[in-house]
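User: Let's play a game. I give you a shape written as tokens, and you guess the letters that built it. Ready? Here's round one.
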């Protein structure tokens, strides 16, 4: 059954918003961050595990190049599709990884979060249906709801570690949706999907004329160093997106990219021109310089993530009250809190108010996940461990459990 998120009243605060304005729902983790920052301004020390907001130093090549571009006054407008040299470098990288004949004409630069909205905007009409494999990133729900698109969630089996299955693909395509969104490697679970199944999904969507968005933001952060992309020069209905935010620890640059058929890329560039003209030149030149150290830096992020998540996973599953699957990528833990006796919203609110630790409620990723929370481990290592300790201690206090040593 399709899912519809109820919009806020159009007359909120006595103002008569448009139907689209009434459907803006945003992302819960940013509301958590806002509440956490109120406490910080009151003098409290907050442990931030709510956002995938890397606190590591980015590659110096990126910072140096961006600063140099500013000094050289690269402050004008850029091409709406993005700086050609950056697009060409990305095309070369993906061509070498996939063996496909990709060029800069297949690449469009835009913030990855916005690309989700842009994809739905150019492929779906109000009332159309989009399938999400859940748990699913909050921006998918928010973008679809804003545009009046019905969401049909297809739940992935928790017993299988929330991995994509052929049954899930069959269920998704049997609904004959206008579009499907798949997220590999997955946020929030850290699951890495089977590459053969992903390619099967892309092939079946292309054959049926169903639009497919492949969100590959964490594809470069898989711990086994596997890399699967659905980027294609030939597929007319498949769009692959990614971002420099996580892999380079620069979310504030807001620089992502899409690979698509030339005709689709042209439409995305028109969307850029319509919505915000272009991305800044200096951030794009910084990212261009970053590509020269991509593999070295990404390997450091993967190594740190695997070690840190491994420790956190073990502590959670030894807690006697919380549990989670071991992530295979990224820096998130999707934690089952059902034995705490609290729903996710109450758990998160009390954890923040009483223990000064911010985490994301599970229902942000679908209404079926009100017994989960998501923890992000991309902050300072000592803060991650302290925030995790406070989360475990709080959960154990609800059931009178004894706190175990790390």
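Assistant: Ready! My guess for every position:
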């Amino acid at each position: 059954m399709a899912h519809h998120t109820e919009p806020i009243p159009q007359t909120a605060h006595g103002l008569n918003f448009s139907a689209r304005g009434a459907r803006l729902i945003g992302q819960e983790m940013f509301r958590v961050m806002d509440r956490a920052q109120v406490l910080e301004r009151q003098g409290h020390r907050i442990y931030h595990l709510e956002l995938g907001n890397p606190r590591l130093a980015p590659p110096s090549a990126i910072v140096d190049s961006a600063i140099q571009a500013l000094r050289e006054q690269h402050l004008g407008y850029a091409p709406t599709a993005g700086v050609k040299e950056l697009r060409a470098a990305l095309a070369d990288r993906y061509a070498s990884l996939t063996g496909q004949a990709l060029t800069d004409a297949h690449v469009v630069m835009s913030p990855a979060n916005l690309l989700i909205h842009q994809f739905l905007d150019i492929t779906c009409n109000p009332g159309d249906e989009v399938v999400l494999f859940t748990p699913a990133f909050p921006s998918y729900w928010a973008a679809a709801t804003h545009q009046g698109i019905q969401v049909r969630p297809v739940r992935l089996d928790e017993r299988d570690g929330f991995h994509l299955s052929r049954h899930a693909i069959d269920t998704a395509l049997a609904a004959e949706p206008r579009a499907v969104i798949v997220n590999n490697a997955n946020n929030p679970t850290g699951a890495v999907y089977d590459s053969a199944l992903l390619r099967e999904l892309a092939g079946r969507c292309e054959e049926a004329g169903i639009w497919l968005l492949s969100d590959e933001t964490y594809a470069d952060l898989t711990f086994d160093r596997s890399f699967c992309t659905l980027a294609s020069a030939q597929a007319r209905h498949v769009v692959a997106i990614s971002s420099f935010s996580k892999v380079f620890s620069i979310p504030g640059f807001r620089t992502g990219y899409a690979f698509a058929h030339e005709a689709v890329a042209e439409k995305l560039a028109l969307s850029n021109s319509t919505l915000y003209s272009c991305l800044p030149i200096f951030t794009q030149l910084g990212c261009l310089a970053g590509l020269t150290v991509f593999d070295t830096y990404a390997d450091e992020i993967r190594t740190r993530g695997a070690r840190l998540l491994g420790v956190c996973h073990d502590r959670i599953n030894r807690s006697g009250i919380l549990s989670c699957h071991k992530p295979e990528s990224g820096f998130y833990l999707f934690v089952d809190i059902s034995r705490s006796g609290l729903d996710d919203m109450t758990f998160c609110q009390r954890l923040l108010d009483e223990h000064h630790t911010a985490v994301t409620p599970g229902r942000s990723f679908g209404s079926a996940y009100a017994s989960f929370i998501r923890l992000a481990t991309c902050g300072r290592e000592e803060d991650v461990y302290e925030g995790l300790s406070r989360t475990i201690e709080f959960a154990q206090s609800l059931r009178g459990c004894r706190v175990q040593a790390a």
